[in-house]
Write a structure and sequence with these properties.
By secondary structure, the protein is an alpha/beta fold. Helices cover 50% and strands 15% of the residues. The protein folds into 2 domains: 6-137, Rossmann fold, CATH 3.40.50.2300; 149-206, Orthogonal Bundle (Arc Repressor Mutant, subunit A). Strand 6, helix 4 and strand 7 (104-107) form a beta-alpha-beta unit. The termini are far apart.
């Protein structure tokens, strides 16, 4: 089965970090970096002449507001998904960006494997917000409403969690990276309004989403 290739544009004025992201994505088979610039006007100019699937935009660029830039991208090119990156991501930025259609939030402190897992979730149509930021944007309800019901993959993950499987065991069973399973678990907890794994399982059983452990 041929793997989907996601075309990516990056706007970040920090050369070393931008180079690191470009290198990271260049080493993965499902992403292709087609644009790497340091300003939003350069990104907009590129988008008027080319097509791509994902824009990764720094929250703070010279003379530009990343959230405003994300709003422009989502308005003019609604099919393009937008992920914001920042060395100082705040709950206020997350709340404003969610309102304009941003679906990914990547603190620059994230490790490469977490960045890739988060971007892959975003490309499936999911919203990824780091757990610590989601919990400070007024609780899990706004994010749960934005994301909707559990996906088929999330239902598989919560079902195996209810059986007592570890993240590593779930990853092996579903042929996923362990970090991807952990990100699924975080999103499940937010959607169900749960504070931890045990509460997420209990709510999933209560709501009839899974049968629960035998």
């Amino acid at each position: 089965m041929q793997q989907t290739l996601h075309r990516v544009a990056i706007a970040d004025d920090h050369p070393l970090y931008r180079s690191a992201i470009v290198d990271l994505l260049a080493r993965t088979p499902d992403f292709e970096v087609v644009c790497s610039v340091d300003t939003l006007p350069q990104l907009s100019d590129f988008m008027t002449k080319n097509t791509f699937d994902l824009a990764i935009v720094d929250v703070q660029l010279p003379g530009s507001d990343g959230v405003a830039g994300a709003r422009e991208i989502r308005t003019r090119w609604p099919a393009v998904k937008v992920a914001l990156i920042s060395g100082d991501m705040t709950a206020d930025v997350v709340a404003k960006a969610l309102a304009v259609g941003v679906t990914g939030f990547l603190p620059k402190t994230f490790s490469p494997d977490v960045i890739l897992a988060a971007l892959r979730l975003v490309m499936t149509g999911a919203i990824y917000v780091p757990h610590d930021l989601a919990s400070t944007t007024g609780g899990p309800a706004p994010v749960r409403q934005a994301e909707g019901p559990l996906t088929g993959r999330e239902a598989e993950v919560i079902d195996r969690m209810a059986r007592g499987d570890t993240y590593k065991e779930i990853a092996r069973e579903l042929d996923l990276a362990e970090v991807t399973v952990k990100l699924h678990a975080q999103r499940i907890a937010r959607k169900l309004g749960a504070r931890n794994r045990a509460e997420a399982i209990a709510r999933a059983v209560r709501d009839g989403l899974i049968k629960g452990p035998a």
